[in-house]
Design goal:
The chain is α+β, with helices and mostly antiparallel strands. 32% of the residues lie in helices and 30% in strands. The chain has one domain: Alpha-Beta Plaits (2-Layer Sandwich), CATH 3.30.70.100. It has a four-stranded antiparallel sheet with strand order 2-3-1-4. A hairpin with a 6-residue loop joins strand 2 and strand 3. The chain is globular. This is Antibiotic biosynthesis monooxygenase. GO terms for molecular function: monooxygenase activity.
């Protein structure tokens, strides 16, 4: 199992807007080979801190997704988001291999 967490900060007053965007996400990634799950997490003490948590069957399958044209299309759309403050946010990405459960 391969875990990818993308952590990013938004102004606290815009957190609900961003959550709404993710609730309406296209779910194209859900069809990718090896995709297991997606969750959007919100820090309870710092509401402007959000984490996209994704689980993949393997690192190779995750990399196949990242290299796909669909991935590129989705992320190009994000750059065109009307709120440029949100569009310019660059997440901190961390990847993990599940070693026990």
């Amino acid at each position: 199992m391969h875990i990818v967490n993308s952590t990013f900060q938004v102004p606290p007053e815009k957190a609900e807007e961003v959550i709404g965007i993710y609730k309406g996400r296209s779910k194209r990634v859900d069809q990718a080979e090896g995709f297991v799950s997606f969750q959007l997490l919100q820090n309870q003490k710092r509401p402007g801190e959000l984490v996209v948590h994704m689980e993949w069957a393997s690192n190779d399958q995750y990399l196949n997704w990242v290299r796909s044209s669909e991935f590129k299309e989705i992320h190009e759309l994000e750059k065109k988001y009307p709120d440029q403050e949100l569009a310019s946010i660059i997440p901190k990405v961390a990847q993990y291999k599940v070693v026990a459960n």
